[in-house]
Amino acid sequence: MKPLPKVAIVILNWNGRKFLEQFLPSLMQSNYSNLEFIVADNFSTDDSILFLEKKFPVVRIIRLKNNWGFAKGYNEAIKEVKADYLVLLNSDVEVTSGWIDPMVNLLENDNSIAACQPKILSWHNKKMFEYAGAAGGWIDKYGYPFCKGRVFDTCEEDKGQYDQAEPIFWASGASLFIRSSAFLEMNGLDEYFFAHQEEIDLCWRLQLAGHKIYSCPSSVVYHVGGGTLQRGSSLKTYLNFRNNLVMLAKNLPGQKKLLVLFIRFFLDTISAWKGLLSGDAAYFMAIVKAQFSFIHWLLYYKKSRHQISVEQIKIKGCLPKSLVWQYFIKKKRTFLEIAGQTKPNYLD
User: Fold this and answer.
1) CA-to-CA distance for 184 and 167, rounded, in angstroms?
2) CA–CA gap between residue 128 and residue 122 (Å, rounded)
3) Sequence-ordered list of residues with C-beta below 8 angstroms from that of 300, at least 6 positions apart, any chain
4) Looking at the DSSP assignment, which residues form a beta bridge with residue 214?
5) Digits of tens for pLDDT over the chain (348 positions)?
6) Angle, in degrees to the nearest 10, between helices 234-251 and 254-277
7) Are 148 and 134 in contact (CB under 8 A)?
8) Which residues pair with 223 in a beta bridge?
9) Per-position DSSP letters for 174-225, written without gaps between them
């Protein structure tokens, strides 16, 4: 009988003793047998490590020497992990006992799938999809990410409308199930991102390399969200806008890149001014800073090692129209209203 593949669950922790205490008990109830529990501590200043050593001695602790952020923190930790599959799991996630098996089965039955995510519902209201991933990530023609079950700030109620496992553009970093070989093939997460949208960039690169990304809604988890940076944080705004521009510049084919980046700069500038006129000067400054940082990246940090010819590749989970137009002008609020019967392919 073929042995079960080994799965390593890696939680990146930074001053998250509260979440570890709250959610590790449910994680320990996972009924998959070949499982390793790992907490990679991102140089916490609270008593997270002492708490783990005392209360959860079965958990392996990887002590990082600095707070490397999400991207480099995971890259450094995974260098010390040996498993067939990795789960990058946020510390503020409550899992269900059978959440691992459906994802293992999905990838074991299709070698072309590199990564997937469970259905992510809100811990605060378990009938609702959660912001960070919902039932799987998509992206529009100008690089705006959204989800099956969440468009901008509108989260839907889960009524089983997205219970079909199918290709998506990106799987959420809140609960990312990925082949170790695929993670290493891509050289992990892009460390320049620090945090936010690095998992979207990774999934884009995986698709460019010929892999698939899938939703696995028969697996369910519950996410608190905003555990490290609250959604209205200026730093979060800055990282999201900067990293999104960097991701577009890295991964778009040459004939699309300039036009999309020009339109994105225009749309982001409108968003910045809208924030300023509504009294949110911090939001305005975060976007302006993000744009200047992106230009600095173009001049000094741009690398070619991740760039792949994409002329003949069809990428799943792309909306061939403007999400901004559909949501703010046409007032469509749900994924099905916006995407409808759209085939999830990259734009021709």
Assistant:
1) 22
2) 6
3) none
4) 116, 167
5) 788 999 999 999 999 999 999 999 999 999 999 999 999 999 999 999 999 999 999 999 999 999 999 999 999 999 999 999 999 999 999 999 999 999 999 999 999 999 999 999 999 999 999 999 999 999 999 999 999 999 999 999 999 999 999 999 999 999 999 999 999 999 999 999 999 999 999 999 999 999 999 999 999 999 998 755 555 689 999 999 999 999 999 999 988 899 999 999 999 999 999 999 999 999 999 999 999 999 999 998 876 444 554 444 679 999 999 999 999 999 999 999 999 866 555 443
6) 160
7) yes
8) 93, 122
9) TEEEEEHHHHHHTTSS-GGG-SSSHHHHHHHHHHHTT-EEEEEEEEEEEE--
Q: Which two tokens stand for residue 306?
A: 């991740």
Please name the amino acid found at residue 11.
Answer: I
58: tokens are 């079965």
CA nearest neighbour of 114 among 39, 201, 50, 203: 203
Say which residue the tokens 């010390």 belong to: 80
pTM: 0.94
Q: Which residue has the tokens 């989260």?
A: 155
Q: What tokens were used for 125?
A: 């209201």
Q: Which amino acid is at 9?
A: I
Cα–Cα distance measured from residue 267 to residue 270, given in angstroms and rounded to the nearest whole number = 5
